[in-house]
Amino acid sequence: MVCSATVVQDPAHPGKSNLLWTAGHCVHAGKSGGWYRNIAFVPSYNNQGRSNAQLQNASRAEVAPYGVWWADAAKTSQQWIDQGGRTGGNGASYDFAVIHVTPEQGNAGKSLEETVGGALPVNFGAPAVPKVQSITATGYPAAAPYDGQLAYQCQDKPGRLSLGTSDPTMYRIGCTMTGGSSGGGWVETGSDGKPALVSNTSIGPVRAGWLAGPRLGDVAKGVYDSVSKKFAGQ
Q: Which end of the chain is more exposed for a tag (fewer CB within 10 A), N or C?
């Protein structure tokens, strides 16, 4: 499994977050399976844009400029665990997760946020589609024609995707990113002029053309708060 993720703020550790935001299907297989193990995060992976040929001879420090961070806790929504499907969008409206990480090499006690130089706030206000002028999605698409070695972005004014009358509507944007971009953050500039994470890549057709991501509300905040509080005293 390969996915994308975003460093987000931790209310229990202001300025010193070790939290990531990603998709639920990046940490749990959904209705048909269980939790994934040995999850590693490589911030700014290959941020110099090296080709596959160049990567063959690149040092670990060149490929992983901020080191490797291992998950020591992950949580997704109960809705994803109960309903999530490999295809078809089942559970996609709740396809989000929060991961807590720890550095592989100790990192001299510095947090992930301190190491990479920042972390995004998460907006659980779920702005309605007409109120969102533009969303930027970032990810590392790995399925053809991509190879997972480079970060890409898509920017678009979102539309709506409705999967069922009982599920919250999702954001949808035009984008050609493929599998591997899942979990990548969707960022909007809020009314205060500052960027905030408002969604993550969840689903898209096999023959790419658009992506959809869940709107973040109370369920998402519950997942986020649960992981933050788990490490509040550390």
A: C
Q: Which residue has the tokens 């096999």?
A: 206
pLDDT tens-place string over residues 45-78: 999 899 888 888 898 888 999 999 999 999 999 9
Q: What is the C-alpha separation between 186 and 200, in angstroms, rounded? A: 5
d(CA 215, CA 220): 9
Nearest residue to 45 via CA among 60, 24, 56:
60
SS3 118: coil
Q: What is the pTM of this model?
A: 0.95
Strand partners, 189: 195
**Backbone phi, psi, residue 226, to 5°:** -60, -45
Cβ–Cβ under 8 Å, residues 227 and 75: yes
215 DSSP assignment? P
Written as six digits, the tokens of 186 are 């969707």
Taking every pair of Cα atoms in the chain, the longest distance, rounded to a whole number of angstroms, is 52
Residue count of the chain, please give it: 234
